[in-house]
Request: fold
Amino acid sequence: MTKKLVFLGMGGTIAGTAASAADNVGYRAAQVGVDQLLQAIPTLGTALGCHELVSEQVAQVDSKDMAFTHWKALALRVCHHLAQADVSGLVITHGTDTIEETAFFLSQVVPTALLASKAVVLACAMRPASSMSPDGPRNVLDAVALACTEGAKGVMVVCAGTIHTAQHVQKIHPYRLDAFDSGDAGPIGYVEEGVVRLTYPWPKTEDVRRPITLEKMAQAAWPRVEIVTSYVGASGAIVRALCSAPQGSEGPLRGLVVAGTGNGTIHADLDVALREAQAMGVKVVRSTRCAWGQIVPPSVLGDGFSHFEGLSPVKARIALILELLA
Reply:
């Protein structure tokens, strides 16, 4: 049986174009279809080896504009393809701005059984496809090498030859090609001349935090969860405004993630407003605005605000959304 490697296109800078090949910032994202994108990589066939290429355009969006509807569609297509016996793995082309959120979301909602022996690899680019020296083709080739590696499993992001897990990956630079980091956990490995070198074992696919059926995820109205940040002079005004805002199509506020200073500490005035919100039935979760490390107990335990160990504010928001959905 011929094995297949499935490519799912989501748009992003990797599919972007600019008027000039010298312009790496003034481009429009999500202009090139995934088929055209793959056809422009001359050594892709060699990298695929005996795998048959299957491609599908799931969305064509600048990842800063990613929406829940895109996530729902992507999750359903990922699960569909992973369930096929002749599919070895998946490569998703995606924008860099929210790739860490999409990767974490998929790691939480795709059933464990589907990730136990297959990899879902998200590839991206910091330069558009029209650049005189685009980084997208190399990142796609590295993603192919990773997805086809014996034993590869779980959801990962590869960029500039570095492999990150969905749990730890974070965009840390707005311009350079090596724009991602995994904090003090470090990357899981590297792709060197088409060969994967692991520094840690493959991601633990059994660590799905908030189990939820795909049917419920696709049909339910997703709860509105917002993020607020603590800083010098932070007041409770924004929290009170969010709680009292007229209900639109997004529905009432259901949750708040606070990006605290240091070890998750919160300005006193903001803290008061958050407790008012919690008394109104809004779930409040604490995180830290620090790029590295995670909240260390017992300093914040027992004060009424829970936290998701080691998750950045944006990933804590996803975890809270899925918890409220479930």
About this structure: The CA atoms of residues 21 and 131 lie 4 Å apart. The two ends are 38 Å apart (CA to CA). Residues 68-82 form the longest helix (15 residues).
